[in-house]
Amino acid sequence: MIEHLPALMIAVPLFGAFIAPLLKKKGSAPAVWAVIITGVTLGMALLLVRQVLAQGMMVYVFGADKPTLVLPSGYRVPVRIIFEVDAIGAFMALSATLMSFIGALYSYSHVRNETGLEKYYALLLLLEVGILGMVLTGDLFNLFVFLEIAGIAGSALVGFRNYRGEASEAGIKYLIVSAVASLMVLFSIGLLYGQYGNLNIAYLSTQISFNTVDMIALGILFASFAMKCGSVPTHHWVPDAYTEVPSGINPTLLVATYASLYALFRVSFSLFGNITVNMSSLGWIMSILGVLTMFIGVTMALVQKDVKRLMSYHAISQTGYMLLGVGVGLAVLNDPAKLAAFGRDAMAGGIFHIINHIIYKSLLLMTAGALFYVTGTRNLNEMGGLARKMPYTTIAFIVGAAAISGIPPFNGFASKFLIYETSYQLSPIFAVFAMVTSVLTLASFVKVFASAFLGPPVKKYEEVREVPRSMVIAMLILAALCILFGLFPNVVLDKLVYPAVDALLKLGSYQTWGGLP
Amino acid sequence: MTWIESLTLNSPSGFWNPIVWLAFLVIFAFIGYLIYSRGNRSYKPNTEQVKPFISGNAVEDVEEIRVRAGDIYWGFIEALKGYYNVLMRMHSGDLRDYILWYLGLGAVILFVLVGGV
To answer: In the prediction, which pLDDT does A515 show?
Structure first.
């Protein structure tokens, strides 16, 4: 059973997605079904993490007993679809399943009054399938297929409230941006396949010769995944999509964005990670993009009046921290002394920030969804005095805002602390921008808190009450995680993050899976 | 390794222990409470004493005089008007611009990687 976990991680939510439409006209059955399926997948992800941390990388081959089987002709390269789950893949799978479960739980009440819920939950589960496929596969073409699944399911969900013109527009924009990025990813895969005749990432990484065609493929892959993960200057789709998508989908869509960030890291460290060639320029590009992303994102957030749009720009800004942390590690990959001194910790900061950000940004977007649920507006100018009416949402917002602003002892501080210190070692200006961004982040969340939750009560909201219980539970689970991850950062770093960093750094063990030459 | 060391996050040039930070927070919160408890006891809520006094003028409806989100940080945004003008032009909302920025980023990355900068 355990050895089939990588395949089951895809099969179970895929089965759930196909069953969900059959539950049409059965009341809340699609919602309950989605909670069950995402819960089971979360349980399997926990087993997968335990297995990978205990036994090392899992290799699962479709259509054969073991990956080392060769063709009768003696062709000794991997030809089957192979999943390769190392610690970073397991880390991302855990993030995806946790957020899909929380999103399904929150959606139970949040979208109860919408129509077409069987499609909503089917798409949510398909989005989860797309993300899990991206982070578990060891095959480039598979990566493209799952990227497409996630992109199509995501754009349909962004446009789910199709009675709103803005939602349809955002859905179409997300679809086109995803399609362009996917098409270019496919083109790059074609370039590599044309040269090396194979699609397996581990095998290709042993063959890459860093010629001009390889570098063109790398450049296109880098730019495409940078756009899909919302890096400046290709971040414009993020506020459109995150604002219009129902808040219950925000957590899963966030992880879908970071699945592309994972793909960017996988391409940089595994596919093109052969350190015989100096790739520090790629690390510098990633770091500079990170700094630009965090600063432009936060300054755009500061001027927003739509609460979800404001938080969406913060999502862009926080992606900058991840790019900076991992970019610093990539920039010193060829220098063992610097890598040991601060590069590995910088990467740990960046990867730790992924899960921290997924948790607190999902929480914040859910609080924004709760505000929309009770007031019917996202315009901060029209809100006020809601703290008295919505005490749990207020507590959840305070925890999320403190975490994203890097206030100790919440989880955002721990990862930012590592990023500040290590990016300073590469270039002090990076650390200065990172700290200024945190100050501006705090400033813009003070604005949200002051205008939505504080101040005198607004007459038209005199009758509003706290949001339904399932929404409160989902928010409080995430708030508790913000506190726990902040109080015990070492536990998360030692059990999840450093193994994920080492999985990226130890290219040799990734290349030699299954004993293939 | 003691339990307190096991909860200490060591970085390349420092350390962070949230439990110690929390212990200090509790101590300073207690000191703050001691100072607060020695404050003026003549305060009486829900009396004339707590009503605002604006030189005898009637107080406007509080809903009308609250600071709205759009007005917060007005000075900051005004001071950085030039920067924000550029940013707003960059965020046109036009899908064709989104793709142009992508092509631009791709061109720069290819120039750096293939051009050998």
So the answer is: 43
The three state secondary structure string of A234-281 is CCCHHHHHHHHCCCCCHHHHHHHHHHHHHHHHHHHHHHCCCCCCCCHH
Shortest distance between the Cα of B76 and any Cα of chain A, in A, equals: 10
> Which pair of structure tokens corresponds to residue A8?
């089951």
pLDDT tier at A309, thresholds 50, 70, 90 = very high
From chain A, pick out residues whose CB is under 8 angstroms from the CB of B66. 384, 455-456
Residue B3 pLDDT: 75
Question: What per-residue confidence (pLDDT) applies to A455?
Answer: 84
Residue A268, min C-alpha distance to chain B (Å): 13
Q: Specify burial of residue B12 (Cβ count, 10 A radius: 0-12, 13-18, 19+).
A: middle
**Residue in A closest to B100 by C-alpha:** A234
Tell me which residue in A233, A455, A456 faces B101 most closely, judged by beta carbons: A233
Nearest to A281 among B6, B70, B112 (CB): B112
Among A219, A224, A451, select the one facing B72 at the smallest CB separation.
Answer: A451
pLDDT tens across B27-84, in order? 999 999 999 998 877 878 888 777 777 787 877 777 677 778 888 888 999 999 999 9
Q: Measured between alpha carbons, how far is A228 from A226 in angstroms, rounded to an integer?
A: 5
Q: Which residues contact A332 (CB under 8 A, 6 or more apart)?
A: A280, A283, A338, A339, A342, A343, A426
DSSP helix/strand/coil, A65? coil
Please say whether the dihedral angle defined by the alpha carbons of residues A461, A467, A472 and A478, taken in this order, is positive or negative: negative
Size of interface A-B (CB pairs under 8 A): 145
Q: How close B56 comes to chain A (CA, Å)?
A: 22
- State whether ipTM is beyond 0.85: yes
DSSP string, A161-191: -TTSHHHHHHHHHHHHHHHHHHHHHHHHHHH
pLDDT given for residue A516 in this prediction = 56
Distance from CA of A153 to the nearest CA of B (A): 20
The residue in chain B having the minimum alpha-carbon distance to the alpha carbon of residue A446 is B72
Q: Is A300 helix (H, G, I), strand (E, B) or coil?
A: helix
Give chain B positions within 8 Å (CB) of A459: 63
Token pair listed for A136: 């578990």
3-state SS assignment for residue B91: coil
Q: Do A421 and B84 touch (CB under 8 A)?
A: no
Cβ atoms < 10 Å from Cβ of B25: 13
Q: Hey, are the CB atoms on B113 and A215 less than 8 Å from each other?
A: yes
Is there a contact between A252 and A103 (Cβ–Cβ < 8 Å)? yes
The model carries a pTM of 0.90
Q: Which of A366, A356, A320 is nearest to A475 (CA)?
A: A366
Asked whether the beta carbons of A255 and A95 are under 8 A apart, the reply is: yes
Q: Which residue, A431, A393, A409, A434, is CA-closest to A356?
A: A409
Q: Which long-range contacts (CB under 8 A, 24 or more apart) does A408-411 make?
A: A408/A486, A408/B16, A408/B18, A408/B21, A409/A483, A409/A486, A409/A487, A409/B18, A409/B21, A409/B22, A410/A360, A410/A482, A410/A483, A410/A486, A411/A356, A411/A359, A411/A360, A411/A481, A411/A482, A411/A483, A411/A484, A411/A485, A411/A486, A411/A489
